[in-house]
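Fold it.
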Amino acid sequence: MGNKCNLVADVFMVIEIKDLRRRYQMGGEDLWALAGVSLGIEKGDFVAIMGPSGSGKSTLLNILGCLDQATSGEYILDGISVAGMSRADLARIRNSKIGFVFQNFNLLTRTSALDQVQLPVFYSGPNHLKGAALHDRAAMLLTQVGLGGRLHHTPAQLSGGQQQRVAIARALMNDPPLLLADEPTGNLDSKATVEIMEFFCRLNAEGQTIVMVTHDDHVAHYTKRRIIVKDGRIAS
């Protein structure tokens, strides 16, 4: 499959994590899903998070995406410490700082590609993008992912790879500093997988920071580096 993306030189840290721990209680006992994780991810990095089932990688991704909070430790996202934030504050951070791409696309069944891409703006509060400007940005992003001729198609009229392209365009709508992808090629055939990963590489070459969870070594080959999680810790 393809080659690794070219490096983008930049020293600004989009993610800084120090001694992150996440405890759950199960059957009256403490279960540590994360047991002291520290890492840094620079602007322009492209990172694969890998590890066996139950290793803690999903917990780590949820915390990186402000969908969950650590029991202890520090998480700084794009210069903002998110530890101890309220749910409302975390929601605002998610909408402004993070774009999400999921394995199952998470598209609305009867909604056009153009309207799907515009959705994040409506969840981010007052925004300068309205009317024609909103329409034009969504159309531009869909054109960028190769769907300029399918603006009004619904998911049923699109292939799996095309649906994932819509999801990527939607994730980029608010111009987030961080793109999180959770098994983004898990439901795609090999041809669509190559197309999606090559597009991620182009985004990264333009400066987009991407953190991706994957179990696929071939997919991870496209990234700049791998973080291996095992037993709630970074193994390598």
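The chain has a mean pLDDT of 91.
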